[in-house]
Amino acid sequence: MTRARFVVSGRVQGVNFRAAAVREATAHGLTGRVWNTDDDAVELVAEGDADGLASFERWLARGPSLARVERVVRTDLGGADRYDDFSVAYGAPE
User: What is the CA radius of gyration of the chain?
Assistant: First the structure.
């Protein structure tokens, strides 16, 4: 089990990015949270197997059709099994 934080920047707010990320993460068997940041980015914490996270990261680089992703920054984190599902958070989760 691997845990990573992603910060996605570009035109990623107001384009259904969070809802699409929930669907995509769930399809890859990931758990975690996604939320908007004050600087117009989208931030995510995702947990799952390495292959699932790698596929999800590739999707994040494209995003949903209305998004224009300019950059994805990944930070691997310690710990895992914190979440039971993947859902939208309203602000950074604890």
Answer: 12
Q: How far is CA 57 from CA 72, 94, in A?
A: 8, 22
Within 13 Å of residue 2, how many CA atoms lie on the same side as its CB? 14
Q: Where are the domains of the chain?
A: 2-81
- The catalytic residues are 18, 36
CA distance 32 to 30: 7
Rounded average pLDDT over 40-67: 96
* Single-letter amino acid, residue 14: G
Tell me which residue has tokens 């680089």: 61
Residue 40's pLDDT is what? 95
Domain 2-81's class?
Answer: alpha beta
Rounded Cα distance between 88 and 22, Å, is: 7
Q: What is the pLDDT of residue 78?
A: 84
